Amino acid sequence: MYNFAMETHSETIRWLLQGDAAVRWQVLRDLCNEPAHVYENERAQVASEGWGAQLLSRQDADGHWGGGIYSPKWKSTTYTLLLLRQLGLPPENPQALRGCEKFFFRGLEKDGGINFWKSFQHSETCINGMLLALLSYFRFPDERIHSVAAFLLCEQMPDGGWNCERIKGATHASFHTTLSVLEGLDEYGARYPENLSAVIEARAKAHEFLLQHRLYKSHRTGEPANYQMTLMHFPPRWRYDFLRGLDYFQSVKARKDERVSDAVSLLIQKQDHNGHWPLNAPWPGLVYFHMEETGQPSRWNTLRALRVLKWWHS
């Protein structure tokens, strides 16, 4: 049995604290249990140094990134803000709020969601999950956020998950869409606790969907639903993998369930002899810069892995 004790990872934590401010503040919060004033002081540095500052410096004069809202991937406004959220850029950052303004350039679709394309007459569920996470996390002041949340809640499928292909006839939920929506609803519930009850009910059903699949397996065969889901990508973009799923479960302090154990075992198997976890190849697309090197020890994956194991063994 894997014996997890934070003191046994002291060298690894020192290595993590030598990284970017985006990693350091999360290590202080999630692994070192430092008080809020300590890690928030470190978090504030995300806007002024390292990766966060580099991304903020790439914002166009009109408030976009990459010249577009959703493309080019991965330089667009949506994906840059997703990464800034993952870095932990403090909410209400003025540049982030300028970017969030762009999401409503066409108002709301008839279904209550956000639709970026004239050729579609419906809102895309996965994208709306990501947008809800961004609008809620950065505390964008617009009442239309509630319409986006209501649209997503109405799109939940009978099996408990979500699938952006539902409108085309899909009857089984998607790992990718389900986690994007869960992350959006989690941020929305934190921002608007008065609406938390509806979020909790939907979240419970979606958790059961992922648990029935042991977080990354086919419900039909018991094998990985997709080989890529057994890898560890960062940033995940819109894609799901087992570590992203595990990190979500620990972030919401989910009740521990035996059906998570396969994913935890897979995570432990991927740890190297130095106590680190590597970075797998990034998803193809344009980027402003690479934060880490493929195949090498990854501070992002090591941070995420250790906080998952801390939650699982607590």
Concise structural overview:
Helix content is 45%, strand content 1%. It contains 13 helices and two strands.
What does this protein structure show overall?
- The protein has 314 residues and is mainly α.
- It has 13 helices and 2 strands; from the N terminus they run ααααααααααααββα.
- A two-stranded antiparallel ribbon has the order 1-2.
- The protein starts with 9 loop residues before the first helix and ends with a helix.
Strand order of the largest sheet: 1-2
Counted by DSSP, the helix tally is 13
Beta-strand residue percentage:
under 5%
Rg over alpha carbons: 19 Å
User: How many strand segments?
Assistant: 2
Helix content: 40-55%
Identify low-pLDDT runs.
none
Structural class: mainly alpha
Largest sheet report:
2 strands, antiparallel
Distance between the termini: 14 Å
Topology order in helix (H) and strand (E) letters: HHHHHHHHHHHHEEH
Shape: globular
Averaged pLDDT, please?
A: 97
Walk me through the topology.
Layout lengths: L9 H7 L4 H10 L5 H8 L6 H8 L19 H11 L6 H8 L23 H13 L7 H10 L20 H17 L4 H17 L29 H10 L9 H9 L7 E2 L18 E2 H14 L2
Antiparallel strand pairs: 1-2
